[in-house]
Specification:
This protein has 318 residues and is of the alpha/beta class. The strands form 2 sheets. It has a 4-stranded parallel sheet with strand order 2-1-3-4, with helices on both faces. A 4-stranded parallel sheet has the order 6-5-7-8, sandwiched between helices. The termini are far apart. The N terminus is likely disordered.
Length: 318
C-alpha cells in the first residue's frame, strides 16, 4: 500500500512537471528577447536557430542560410513525410522555444502548431508561413485548401522568395547574403522548371491517378489531369468497398483513354493498394516523390524533381 501511494505521488509529480514544460515553452518563445538569447550563447553555439516544420522547408533553409550565422533545424524527423497526422512532442516544444524563428508551410499543413501562429502578435517575424505569398487555388475533397505548394516547382519558387524576404527583414545584418542565396537557388529552380517543361509539355492533357492529394499544383503546372487518388489520407488503406470503387473507376478511365492510365505511388508509403488495383486493371505502377523525405542536402529537391521527370517520361512513353 505504501509503495502504491508513493508510486502514484511520483507519477503525479512527473505529470505536473511535463505539463509545466509544455506551458512554459510557448511563453518562452514569445517572451525571450532574441538579442538577449544570442548574447548569452557560447562561442560554440552562437548561431541563430531557424526551425523548419518539416523536410522541404528545411532544404530551402539550407540554401537560403548558407554562409550566414543562421542555423537551420527541423522539427519533424526527416522520415516523417507529410504532416497530416503529426503529433507535437515535448521535445518539439522545447525546440520551438529555443528557436529564434520558425518557418512553416502554412495553408493548413501544421494545424498542430496553431499556438505558434498566435506568437506573431507579440514577436513580429518570429513565425514565417511560406505559403502566404502563393495563390493557393486548389482544394481537397473536404473543401480545405490543399497545402502541398512545394510539390509544384512554381510553388517552391514562391516559397523560397517569401521565406527569403521575411528572413532578410528579420535579420538585416544577413539580408544581403540571404537575398543573394535566394537569387541563386531561384535561378536553379527556374532552370529545373524549364527543363521539365521542355520534356513534359508534349504530354499536356495526359491523365494520371496519384497516391494521395499531393500533386494538384504539380499537375496544374505541367498540364496533367488527375483522374483520382488511391488514398485520401496517406497511410490509411482504402476499405474493401472503396478499393472496389477505385478499381471500377480505373477500369472506366482506361476504357475512355487511348492507353491505360498510370498509377503513381509515393516512396514514403506502402504500395499494397496500388498493386491490387494494378493487378485488377492492368494499369502500370510508377513512383512519384512529393519531396517530403530524403537526404539533408541543398540539392535534394532538385534531384528528386529530376527523378520525377524521368519517371513521368517513362510512364507516358509506354
Amino acid at each position: 500500500m505504501f509503495f502504491r501511494k508513493f508510486f502514484n505521488l511520483g507519477f503525479s509529480v512527473l505529470l505536473i512537471a511535463e505539463c509545466a514544460v509544455f506551458s512554459s515553452c510557448f511563453v518562452n518563445f514569445v517572451k525571450i528577447n532574441a538579442n538577449e538569447r544570442r548574447s548569452n550563447n557560447s562561442a560554440e553555439t552562437d548561431k541563430i536557430t531557424i526551425t523548419a516544420s518539416f523536410y522541404p522547408l528545411y532544404i530551402m533553409l539550407l540554401n537560403l542560410c548558407d554562409g550566414t550565422d543562421l542555423k537551420p533545424e527541423m522539427l519533424a524527423p526527416s522520415d516523417t513525410g507529410c504532416l497530416h497526422d503529426y503529433q507535437l512532442t515535448t521535445r518539439d516544444m522545447q525546440k520551438i522555444s529555443s528557436s529564434d524563428c520558425v518557418v512553416l508551410n502554412g495553408a493548413g499543413m501544421e494545424d498542430f502548431l496553431d499556438k505558434v501562429y498566435e506568437s506573431k502578435k507579440t514577436s513580429e517575424g518570429a513565425v514565417i508561413s511560406a505559403s502566404d505569398g502563393f495563390n493557393s487555388f486548389v482544394t481537397d475533397a473536404d473543401g480545405a485548401v490543399n497545402p502541398h505548394v512545394w510539390v509544384s516547382v512554381d510553388g517552391a519558387i514562391s516559397q523560397v522568395n517569401w521565406i527569403s524576404s521575411k528572413l532578410a527583414e528579420r535579420y538585416p545584418s544577413f539580408s544581403e547574403k540571404i537575398l543573394k542565396n535566394a537569387e541563386s537557388y531561384t535561378k536553379e529552380l527556374e532552370e529545373l522548371k524549364t527543363a521539365m517543361h521542355s520534356e513534359l509539355d508534349k504530354y499536356r492533357g495526359e491523365t494520371i491517378i496519384t497516391f494521395h492529394e499531393a500533386f494538384p499544383y504539380f499537375a496544374n503546372e505541367f498540364g496533367l489531369s488527375i483522374a483520382g487518388v488511391i488514398e485520401r489520407e496517406p497511410g490509411t488503406a482504402p476499405s474493401p468497398k472503396e478499393l472496389s470503387e477505385i478499381i471500377q473507376f480505373v477500369d472506366e478511365s482506361n476504357k475512355a483513354a487511348v492507353k491505360k492510365v498510370p498509377l503513381f505511388v509515393e516512396p514514403q508509403y506502402s504500395s499494397a493498394s496500388a498493386e491490387i488495383i494494378s493487378n485488377e486493371t492492368g494499369s502500370a505502377i510508377y513512383e512519384l516523390d512529393p519531396c517530403v523525405t530524403g537526404v539533408l542536402e541543398k540539392d535534394s529537391y532538385v534531384k528528386a524533381m529530376k527523378k520525377n521527370l524521368e519517371v513521368l517520361r517513362k510512364a507516358f512513353a509506354q
